[in-house]
Amino acid sequence: MNALSGCVASLTLSTETLQSTIDTLSASVEDYPRVCKILSSNRHFEVISARELQTAQTLLSETIQPETDRLLRETEKAVHKLELKERKLIADAELLETRIANSLKTKASAAAAAEAARKAEIKEEEEREDENEKETAKNEEVLRRLKAQRQRLAYAVERLELEKRQKEMLVKKSLSYSHV
């Protein structure tokens, strides 16, 4: 009976060890889906060739440069308009000073003629500036369309050259297989 009690004790110990192992394994496996998700790698970036990168940079530059130039021209025109406005305001201020001085001296008629002449000059200059702006805007639109057309044609030529190279490769392959 002593021999059997030793076997029973050994079996009980083995069962307890096995149960402990199962509990530990269950706890470890329970977190397995989360660990798989964490360790899975996602491809966030695509590797491209240097030529594709250079083409994209060129395209981006060609897209941004005209817009930058246009904004710069608009800014220069706005500054020029503000300068004209400043000159006009200065002329108006001088005119008012002249009017005050002339009203005290009763020479208002000469000042009115000078004011009219200055205003006429400034108005003529503003009208010329507006005409120049309209013409420039038309020219810019034509230039933008021509650049876009040139870019489309360049892309079409590049695509056709690529197709030509692919067809040449197919012809070379078919010729090499026909000789075999």
Description:
It is a single chain. By secondary structure, the chain is mostly helical. It has 2 domains: 13-39; 53-179. It has 4 helices and no strands. The protein has helices at 2-30, 32-39, 50-105, 108-179. The mean pLDDT is 84. Keywords: Centromere, Chromosome, Cytoplasm, Cytoskeleton, Kinetochore, Nucleus.
Which descriptors apply to this entry?
single chain; 180 residues; mainly alpha; 2 domains; 4 helices
Whole-number total of structural domains = 2
Q: Give the total of beta strands.
A: 0
Mean pLDDT: 84
The main sheet comes to:
none
- Computed over alpha carbons, the radius of gyration is 43 Å
Structural class: mainly alpha
List the helices and strands and how they pair.
Layout: H1 2-30, H2 32-39, H3 50-105, H4 108-179
Helix pairs in contact: 3-4
How would you summarize what this structure contains?
The protein has 180 residues and is an all-alpha fold. It is built from 4 helices and no strands. The protein folds into 2 domains: 13-39; 53-179.
